[in-house]
Every structure is written in structure tokens, then in C-alpha cells.
Amino acid sequence: MARLGGSVGEVNVLTRAAAGTEEAPSYTQTLRVAAELDGAHRELIQCQVYLEMRDDDLPAKRAVVELVLTSTVEGFEDFVGEFQEFVRSVVPADAG
After folding, report:
1. Which of 26, 63, 80, 82 has its CA 20 to 30 A from that of 74?
2. What pLDDT is attached to residue 92?
3. How many other CB atoms sit within 10 Å of the CB of residue 35?
4. What kind and span of H or E run contains 17?
């Protein structure tokens, strides 16, 4: 939330879910955020996705990739489909 660059007020969790597979787990949540940006009140939706990526050579070595879409409530439906496509395209470099 700090990355929004303004004053954040109330935050409500709309959805939260574990997803992915045992080999490639992920976690998603969607938040509704009241914020003051550039002196104006905004109602925002933020979709957060956390993907765990494991090193095939060293299974104990892992990285977590955070992907975030922030939009106005009114514009969210315009962007969420493309964001979901983008999330599905994120794979380790050697995977293809």
C-alpha cells in the first residue's frame, strides 16, 4: 500500500486464496482501498499475486515474485483480464 504514493485510509480484503500447485504455489488477494492521491479521494482495487518459484537444481532455494494491479474501482474490469493473462505468462527463464 505504501507504493501508492498517497495517504491510505480504509483497506478491505475482498478475496483471498491459495492457488497454484504443490510445485508452484501461489497466493492471491484482492483489496478495496480508500486513498488520497494528488489531493483527491480515490476508491481503488488492488489485485496482489505472489508466485513461489523454486530452483530446480537446489529445491530449498526459492524466490517469491510479487505482481500487483492497482486500478480505480470503475476501471478494474477493463484491466483485470490482461493482468490475469500477464500473471499466467510469468514462468522461470529456463521453463520457457
Report:
1. 26
2. 78
3. 20
4. strand 7-20
